[in-house]
Amino acid sequence: MTTTLQVTKRDGTASPECIPAVVYGPKQESLALNIDRKTFEKLFKEAGESTIISLEGLDGEVEVLVHDVSFNPVRGGIQHVDFYAIERGKELTTHVGIEFIGEAPAVKGGGVLNKALHELEVTCRPSKLPQHITVDVSVLTDFEEVIRVKDISLPEGVKVENDPNETVALVVPVAEEKEEDAAPVDMAAIEVEGEKTTSEDGEGKEAE
């Protein structure tokens, strides 16, 4: 999947309506860019980091992946974007999100679905790069079943770089919390400070 994004070369500071960005790669000189904030926020929400983006507005067409997005720690908005220029026909290694589908029967048996992994590191040609990897959790019929990386069906031409035995998902039983009965309070054993003082004072006066 490929989408387009209009960019302009950046001279100086970006305006509030734009996000400062940079593009670089093995055969791409580093360029400072401006990208429209609203356009990129919408694109990034829909496409994420595993969609090839064709940058328009430069000297020639540049195909990139979103390599890094940094956020403002105070306001929370995107404050900078790094684009990595890819080479058509050459393999690349990147991260692709996992999309979980189906219902795990073990959940109905009193368990909770634990999604241990949310993305995979894959290597493939740009034309083969999937937007996401699908994992069907309906195979989790009991608490003993575990989906591992080696169990995932990958699209043709895509190789996963994760440890084959790495856990992707499993269903764990809900811990039963046992409420302990509160020990009864012996009110007679509670000594009131005021009464103690009065009693001691009385004994002292009688002694005199």
How would you describe what is shown here?
- There is one protein chain.
- Helices cover 14% and strands 41% of the residues.
- The chain folds into 2 domains: 86 residues, Ribosomal Protein L25, Chain P, CATH 2.40.240.10; 81 residues, Beta Complex (RNA Polymerase Alpha Subunit, Chain A, domain 2), CATH 2.170.120.
- A hairpin with a 6-residue loop joins strand 5 and strand 6.
- The strands form 3 sheets. It has a 6-stranded mixed β-barrel. A 4-stranded mixed β-sheet has the order 10-7-9-12, with no helix packed on it. Strands 8-13-11 form a 3-stranded antiparallel β-sheet.
- The chain is mostly beta strands and 208 residues long.
How are the SSEs placed, and which strands pair?
Elements: E1 2-9, E2 18-25, E3 28-36, H1 37-47, E4 52-56, E5 62-71, E6 78-85, E7 92-101, H2 105-108, E8 111-115, E9 119-124, E10 132-136, E11 146-148, E12 159-160, E13 167-173, H3 193-207
Parallel strand pairs: 1-4, 2-6, 7-10
Antiparallel strand pairs: 1-3, 2-3, 4-5, 5-6, 7-9, 8-13, 9-12, 11-13
Instruction: Please state the CA-atom Rg, rounded to the nearest Å.
Output: 31 Å
- Averaging pLDDT over every residue, what do you get? 85
What is the CATH class name of the largest domain?
A: Mainly Beta
Q: Span between N and C termini?
A: 100 Å
What is the general shape?
elongated
Q: Could you give the order of strands across the largest sheet?
A: 1-3-2-6-5-4
User: What would CATH call the architecture of the largest domain?
Assistant: Beta Barrel
Number of helices: 3
- Residue share in β-strands: 35-45%
CATH H-level homologous superfamily name of the largest domain: Ribosomal Protein L25, Chain P
SSE series: EEEHEEEEHEEEEEEH
Which structural class best describes the helix and strand composition?
A: mainly beta
Contiguous low-pLDDT stretches (5 residues minimum) are: 176-182
Task: State the helicity in percent bands.
Answer: 10-25%
What is the fold named in CATH at topology level of the largest domain? Ribosomal Protein L25, Chain P
* Topology, number of strands: 13
Biggest sheet, in brief? 6 strands, mixed, barrel
The overall number of domains is 2
Oligomeric state, counting identical vs distinct chains: single chain
